[in-house]
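To whoever is on call:

I kicked off a structure prediction for a single chain this morning and the downstream step that reads the tokens threw a length-mismatch warning. I double-checked the sequence; it's 147 residues and nothing unusual in it as far as I can see. Pasting both halves so you can look.
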Amino acid sequence: MRKMNKVGLAILGMTALAGISRPILAAEDAPKTHERGERKGGKHNGGKHKGAGRHIAAELNLSDAQKVQMKAIRQESRAARKAIKADTTLTREAKRAQMKELRASTKAKISAILTAEQRAKLEALRAQHKAERKERRGEKRENRKAG
């Protein structure tokens, strides 16, 4: 009888182990999830801002050459941003300062490839976006007060 209990416990243990290890093994085979800020969906890359580059290109009526240059600038900026975020030797303040410099540098590079008319249109779009953002923030504050 005792031998039967040991065998039963061994079988039960192996069954439980197989049940636990299956999801773990499946998770290892599954594609890796995206890191923070690289999510697909939501308000990051896949959501509200998805296609923002194409929208701007259409609004500014960029030439094919300008589109290629814009894409290269954005890719370079994205790589630099990732490098800054990944640098564990930097303090939070140093990262902020470098990000601010990167944004200014990227803005200057983009401005350099645009015509005067396109730069004016881009500044108007930025001002419009800033006003919309300010309005949304005001609505959020009102909703918090009311809630």
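Update from on-call: the warning came from a stale cache, not from the record. Cleared it. Sanity check on the structure: The radius of gyration is 26 Å.
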